[in-house]
Write a structure and sequence with these properties.
This protein is mostly beta strands and 221 residues long. 15% of the residues lie in helices and 38% in strands. The two termini are 23 Å apart.
């Protein structure tokens, strides 16, 4: 599965532009007074300003398997605070998922993640910069009924539960290493923080087996 487009809201468009263009160095594809669109690897990431809401998202970028240590050095050089795991480690090891991650905030308080997945086995000769990320590979979806919502979207798209993660009532994932929809209940903290997940408006465009699907916020309310 590929997440081809991710549409999110932002309370402060200037902060979004500053962080994703200036700090991450992503290319601005399109910009208006109320919206900005970035190229994030193979994914288009769009923020639309809505000053009446304070959304809170968690999403992840796949990076090359040889880029994780370089990503840490890049973050430190750019004064980006990396969030420690509960074990007080910068790198979180997801053994079952065969993946390693680092976490950080954007300027609007969204939780971001760089994740290197062993089973993708993509390496790059170029030194790491965020422009070398592969794609947006995860977006968190907050719903009172994670499994029921996931199964409704599975029926719509033909996706299956992620083979590396057994579905639970409060947490489940559908898709694969290239693209995952992560469903969590509002009672659950977003790892590795102590902040509760909260529902926020989003639109996700997916490519599944050469078919395209649009997942709207109303699908999980």
């Amino acid at each position: 599965m590929k997440i081809t487009n991710l549409y999110l809201e932002t309370e402060n468009l200037n902060n979004s532009l500053s962080f994703y263009q200036n700090t991450l160095g992503l290319t601005v594809v399109e910009q208006t007074a109320k919206e900005v669109r970035f190229q994030a690897g193979e994914t288009l990431l769009t923020f639309t300003e809505n000053k009446n809401k304070t959304p809170f998202y968690h999403f992840a970028f796949n990076i090359a398997t040889n880029h994780l240590e370089q990503a840490i050095a890049w973050a430190q050089a750019n004064h980006i605070e990396l969030l420690p795991s509960p074990k007080n480690e910068i790198i979180t090891h997801f053994d079952t998922w065969k993946a390693k991650s680092i976490y950080f905030w954007d300027l609007n308080g969204n939780l971001l993640e760089f994740i290197a997945r062993a089973d993708i086995q993509t390496t790059k000769a170029q030194p790491f910069s965020p422009k070398e990320m592969l794609n947006i590979s995860e977006i968190g979806i907050v719903t009172a009924h994670p499994m029921q919502t996931a199964e409704a979207i599975m029926q719509q798209t033909g996706l299956q539960y992620f083979s590396k993660s057994a579905p639970l009532p409060e947490f489940c994932a559908i898709g694969d290493d290239e693209g995952l929809l992560i469903f969590v209940s509002p009672e659950r903290n977003w790892y590795p923080t102590q902040l509760k997940a909260q529902p926020s408006t989003a639109t996700i465009k997916l490519e599944v087996s050469n078919s395209t699907h649009t997942i709207l916020a109303s699908d999980w309310k």
